Amino acid sequence: MKFDYVVVGGGTCGLLVANRLSEDPNTTVVVIEPGQDARNNPNVTDPANFLVPFNTPIDWAYPTISQPGAANRSLTFHSGKAIGGTSTINGLTYFRSDAAEIDAWEALGNAGWNWETLFPYYKKVERFTRPTTAQVASGAHYEPQYHGEDGDLHVGYRYALSNGSFHGLLVSLGIHTVIDLAGVGENLQEQPNSESLLSLSNNLKVAGATTYSTFGTVEDIFGSNKSVIAASTNESLARYAQLVASASHDGVNATALEQIFRVLYDLLFSKNVAISETITDYNSGNLLSVWWCLIPLSRGSVHLGSAQLIDEPGD
């Protein structure tokens, strides 16, 4: 096969060059990339996992030469080996360089390589989400001359509830509504977790980790303080319900939510059901403990981020 252009390397620069060249429908472009397609890899698409891809097949993980400045150690130089290059292992971080940094290129003798020349291309890749009326009223501000709106890189303010209702959010996104159901997207419950990683001393012998989870009750967690916690929680249930109702713009009924909370309270403090799950694992001198809250009283919401079907939720 013959191509007009062959781009070697499918990193951010290579893909951008290929994209620009292929804007001409009469031009054929091929990109050569030794890495895999990681666009559906959750360790790439979720910035919370940005450390996980290190030393995996999408990381070249080059070893450096041992040298005195590194205490005579060979360290790992991480570099992305996938479509998207190092951007796939960089936690989805994006920011513009300072104008002075770009102008320094020209100062070194690269005529035309300055901020004024580059700035239009920064704008070209950007699809800026303007703040809603409610966000502006809360202090959000932006200067439109510094942002682009037709590119592929989504930046800016995420849509949140406006006009005090789910209906208001849909209207702000240009979506026609038939029925206004205020509770849509509200009363979201999730079971949060926390992790602890301990490095064990060399003289500690660990036979292995349990193959089962540990489920703890209120008494297991709080011990002799159970009655104090019970009394404090009982006094706060109505307030908790009202806080959630207010945060949902009254999409959730406070009285109904308090009734649910009191059922949960009875499960926790009278029926002694499990309120937590804990698992442990041991590997190479490290002890990992992961803890989940099974019956949280906190509530959240999930709403649209845009009118596009493939976009992520806004909040």
Automatic annotation (TrEMBL):
<dbReference type="InterPro" id="IPR012132">
    <property type="entry name" value="GMC_OxRdtase"/>
</dbReference>
<protein>
    <submittedName>
        <fullName>Pyranose dehydrogenase 1</fullName>
    </submittedName>
</protein>
<dbReference type="GO" id="GO:0050660">
    <property type="term" value="F:flavin adenine dinucleotide binding"/>
</dbReference>
<dbReference type="InterPro" id="IPR036188">
    <property type="entry name" value="FAD/NAD-bd_sf"/>
</dbReference>
<feature type="domain" description="Glucose-methanol-choline oxidoreductase N-terminal">
    <location>
        <begin position="3"/>
        <end position="144"/>
    </location>
</feature>
<dbReference type="Pfam" id="PF00732">
    <property type="entry name" value="GMC_oxred_N"/>
</dbReference>
<keyword id="KW-0274">FAD</keyword>
<keyword id="KW-0285">Flavoprotein</keyword>
<comment type="similarity">
    <text>Belongs to the GMC oxidoreductase family.</text>
</comment>
<dbReference type="GO" id="GO:0016614">
    <property type="term" value="F:oxidoreductase activity, acting on CH-OH group of donors"/>
</dbReference>
<keyword id="KW-0560">Oxidoreductase</keyword>
<dbReference type="InterPro" id="IPR000172">
    <property type="entry name" value="GMC_OxRdtase_N"/>
</dbReference>
